[in-house]
Amino acid sequence: MNMAFWPLALIVLAGAVGVIADANVFHAALWLVFSFLGVAGVYVLLSAEFLAITQVLVYIGAISVMLVFAVMLTRPVIGKTNLSSFRRPLAAIVSAVLSGIMAWAEWWGPWPAGGPAPGDGPRPTGLEMLTTHLLPFEIAGLILFVALVGAIAIGRGVESK
Amino acid sequence: MTGLTAYLWLGAALFGLGTYGVLAKKNAIVALMCIEMMLSAANINLAAFNRFVAQSDLAGQVFALFSVSVAAAEAALGLAMIIALSRHRRTVELDEFDMLKG
User: What does the alpha-carbon distance between residue A58 and residue A54 come to, in Å, rounded to a whole number?
Assistant: First the structure.
């Protein structure tokens, strides 16, 4: 068990709590970036370097910028904007039960201890993606293209004549 | 506690926090952030299972990569819809979006 796991887990969970608990939506977006950075570190520990780099590029580089833009375009960013609805107790019960069931199920089960880390970097991941999983790769590109065209069409709105 | 259990518990905790945010938050953008958190939890589980259970091939990591790209598409579409709705209704509160209610 790598000792670097515990500070990284703390970063991930602290960021997630910050997203929920911070009173300002803009600060919640920054907490989300903090949490994503921890997730990238966890990927490095799992010797998924390519996934970690993708996490930094896509989530921290692109999605968080998009979220910050959306926050600024939709609301005034100062003051208490990150409110909770009256369903808070019910939401807490549902999420606690879900997480509890998952943690309980994951505690049992004879998990293998896992061998030593492979440590040959991102090269095998890229080869796997572009040989065995080439068709899903192309379909993912098509999905991204269609989604971005759709996002532009929806976000631009309908001109009234 | 084996290494895998710790990673899976991290995923479960992150998923639970995301679920709470999606259900309890009023702001649609924060709900979208919490959905991204839940997807990250699933990706942590995929990478952990790839590392500890099925190390011979890298299908778990590749699956997580596809999940990241689909999450990017989902975030782009979700934010476009939120911006269009906020222009239309002057709010981003999820409880206000009840136009489809009969």
Answer: 6
Task: Write the pLDDT tens digit of every residue in A66-120.
Answer: 999 888 888 665 667 777 778 888 999 999 999 999 989 888 877 777 777 776 7
3-state secondary structure of B93: strand
Q: How far is CA A140 from CA A136, B22, B66, in A?
A: 6, 26, 7
- Interface probe for A, chosen from B8, B22, B33 (most Cβ of A below 10 Å), is B33
Measure in Å the smallest separation between the Cα of B98 and chain A Cα atoms: 15
Name the residue in chain A with its Cα closest to that of B76. A151
* pLDDT tens digits along B29-73: 999 999 999 999 999 999 998 888 877 778 888 999 999 999 999
Taken in order A8, A13, A17, A19, the sign of the CA dihedral is positive
Half-sphere exposure of residue A63: CA atoms within 13 angstroms, side-chain side: 32
**Cα B17 to Cα A28: distance, rounded to the nearest angstrom:** 13
Q: Look at B84 and A157 and tell me if their CB atoms are within 8 Å.
A: yes
ipTM of the complex in this document: 0.90
